[in-house]
Amino acid sequence: MIYVFDPILKTLVWGTELWVLSGVAGSESICSAVSGVRQEEVAVATHSLVGRSLNEIYGAEFPLLIKFIDAKKDLSIQVHPDDTLAAARHNCKGKTEMWYLIDTAPGAQLLVGFKQRIGPEDYVRLVKENRITEVLARHDVKPGDVFYLPAGRVHAICGGCYLAEIQETSDITYRIYDYNRPGLDGKPRQLHTELAKDAIDYKVYPDYRTHYSPTRNEEVELVSDPHFVTSLYEIDKPQIIPVPRTAGQSGEKNFLILIGLEGEISVSAGCTDSACKGAQSQIVRAGSSVLAMDEKAVGISPLGGSARFLAVHL
């Protein structure tokens, strides 16, 4: 089956987030359409599944959260705990994530990682002195850039960036610095200086950017992490993409998330490794996504020439 979910728009002090696939409690995606192989199968699925939450359809908390982030202003500098620390402190998952830059304004930048080695006490002092940005690595960015952000890596999206974010299902964020600005309620936003102190990876790495070579009509793997695998496709002819069997916990369903970046694609269910027969399809436009679940493979066709999209699975 191929599932479409209603997006959730969140307005924040710096811009907007569009949550296109979410199992986060209180912000769960709701199914709005279903496609299958046979018409009668779709009729049954539509009656029983449309209006249900992502977690209900999946049968457990869905493990990933997919967002489109449109930053009009700089976001706060932040870090996320790993799974072990998040479980101990908050009884939830940590947050490892990645960014794919879709569009950027002239001069747009990201802050990712440290450019010089500091320790926990240095960090606390620099935050108090409003100087933490002095030790962070600043990156000029352009469309197509990719950054992998394991839990513990300090980061911030700056104004002028529009990107897709793939992350664990977690809304745990430790805000380190927010430029002393008020929130939407006019009050200063809370900082989590002490909580972040033990969550930060203080190492300096030689390169924080993910490098890859785009290849038309072939899978280009961008990130392979225990929490998710993300690949880029740039296509100008039909493709059949397998839906990998999950190696996760018992009872987890196999799935493939397709995230539109540029152009439009038609996604067909009921495919084998070599053909799609009589399958109904869903259209994925830039800035949207669909979820294929319990399928062996899906058929992808570009509409109007060429298209670019991400494919994500466990």
Reported by name, the CATH topology of the largest domain is Jelly Rolls
Q: Can you identify the CATH class of the largest domain?
A: Mainly Beta
> How large is the count of helical segments?
5
CATH superfamily of the largest domain: Jelly Rolls
Q: Based on DSSP secondary structure assignment, what is the total number of beta strands?
A: 21
* Assembly annotation: single chain
Shape by Cα distribution: globular
Major sheet: 9 strands, antiparallel
Cα radius of gyration in angstroms: 20 Å
Order of helices and strands: EEEEHHEEHEEHEEEEEHEEEEEEEE
Give the overall pLDDT as a whole number: 91
Report low-confidence residues grouped into runs of 5 or more. none
Helix vs. strand class: mainly beta
CATH structural architecture of the largest domain: Sandwich
Helical percent range?
10-25%
Total tally of structural domains? 2
Intertermini distance: 18 Å
- Report the sheet-strand fraction: 35-45%
Q: Would you give an account of this structure?
A:
With 314 residues, this protein is mainly beta. It has 2 domains: 2-210, Jelly Rolls (Sandwich); 220-313, Jelly Rolls (Sandwich). The chain has 5 helices and 21 strands. The chain is globular and about 60 Å long. The mean pLDDT is 91.
